[in-house]
Amino acid sequence: MRSQTNQIIETLKRYAKGRQNDVHRGLESPELSALLLEKYAVGLVDAIRVLGVDVDINLIASEADKLCLCIDHDMNKNREIRYKNFSNLDLSEPRKYSRNLKRGFKCR
């Protein structure tokens, strides 16, 4: 179990390094890069659960949080702002769909 956990963490670190490089090159903001890394980690954990791989998910999630904080030192504050903005959405009105969705647009 430990070996596979370490392999997954190394994969996560490689992805994080790429995100951090993009921040240093000015291609992405720290907020965006940390968010992308967070979503990547969630996807990894979801895949691990589906496949039933015997790894320490808590250790992987903890490492992902540390790596996100290295990229965006304000990650917790930015996450809170995202959640707060989302929770303020008014869902009482019907959603207005884009013109493409009305025509039956399908992602491929």
β-strand amount: under 5%
Total number of strands: 0
State the secondary-structure class: mainly alpha
Ends apart, CA distance between termini: 37 Å
Mean pLDDT: 84
Radius of gyration, whole Å: 18 Å
Give the overall shape, derived from the CA principal axes.
globular
For the sheet with most strands, the description reads: none
Name the poorly predicted regions. Answer: none
State the share of residues found in helices, binned by percent: over 70%
Order of helices and strands: HHHHH
Top keywords for this entry?
5 helices; globular; 0% strand; 108 residues; mainly alpha
What do these coordinates show?
With 108 residues, this protein is mainly α. It contains 5 helices and no strands. It starts with a helix and ends in a 6-residue tail after the last helix.
Topology of this structure?
Layout: H1 2-24, H2 30-51, H3 57-71, H4 75-87, H5 99-102
Helix pairs in contact: 1-2, 1-3, 2-3
Q: How is this structure best summarized?
A:
71% of the residues lie in helices and 0% in strands. With 108 residues, it is mainly α. α1 runs antiparallel to α2 (30-51) and α2 runs antiparallel to α3.
